[in-house]
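Encoded backbone
================
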Amino acid sequence: MKKRFLQAYKQAPWRIQIQWIGLFLLGLVLAASIAGLYLNISGQAATTGRRIQNLEYEIGEIQNEIADLTTNLAKEQSVEKMKARAEEMGFKLRDPSTAVYLEIPGFNPADSLVLAPPRVNVLSESPSIRSSYRSSLWDWFVQKIWMSASGSATEGGN
């Protein structure tokens, strides 16, 4: 009787094989989906890293161009170049003792001339982390759980 009872609930061998094949295929699908997800994320990270490298290269090129233009401007504004351009335009160097000075009514040379401050390129290096990300899990737990529990205990006592 006991043998018949076990045979009634025992599955056929082909069903067991199908179950094992199904479990193997399920594991294979899970492994393939995890690998695909990993490859997708790795691809996005690589693409983003390459974009960052390209942008840094462009920043370097622009900074070099700015340095070249600043150098060219300094050369063009040098004393020798400005003097040559002034002579080319017909200006001549005057002796201050022979120069004629005109008095202009309403002009006061003693008034101080206010100029704009020099331009300074300052990059802000401060981190842009939101305050909600600066607290630890323990701080949040103390604030939310313990403080609210002590607050409700004091309200219940009144």
In short: The CA atoms of residues 62 and 132 lie 36 Å apart. The helical segments are 2-9, 13-76, 79-88, 137-157.
